[in-house]
Amino acid sequence: MRYRLLNSAESKQHPISEEQLLTGRGIRLVRFKLPSRYGQLAYYLAAGEWKKADQKTAQIMLQVAGREEEDYLRLEDIEKFPCADLGTIDQLWVKYSEGRFGFSVQKRIWQEVGGKVDYSTECKLGDRVGWRKGGNWLNYQKIINFTHEAPVGILPCWYRYVTRLGRVLTIRPGSSLGINISLVQRAVTCSI
Asked: What is the DSSP letter of 161?
């Protein structure tokens, strides 16, 4: 695909205000209205504040699923999670992490390690993205250094959710299997 600058006739036919030009190079900025619930997430991601973005992602997912009061997601909540919202979250993560983080990244890695709905495949995924070390699942606080150099696919960290009070609820491997598989399957169903 090739790009070129607008010529003078095209500029007159399709006027672009000065603020819409990107450094005077004739590149049209495309703006869309991001739903307000995603504004803070986009800000954290753009600033590279991965931990805050991860926590905000969990809060948004609870809000979208109507589970703020309960502070956790059930399998049925994930299975019904709106594709548009999952897609928006994923697009923001992928864009601002330059393709390192996001549900679609995790789905791709899941498929690379076998794509099966079983604990063995989940362990392989955990090993690959850094949720496990030496055969053990890591505590959320020990998982990540929260830098751009963190393992590809480690964020958003789906097997834990942040409560409104800032406490971290970690779902241990025995109970997390369904949560992890449901998120992968939802990403597949939603074509993310």
From this structure: E
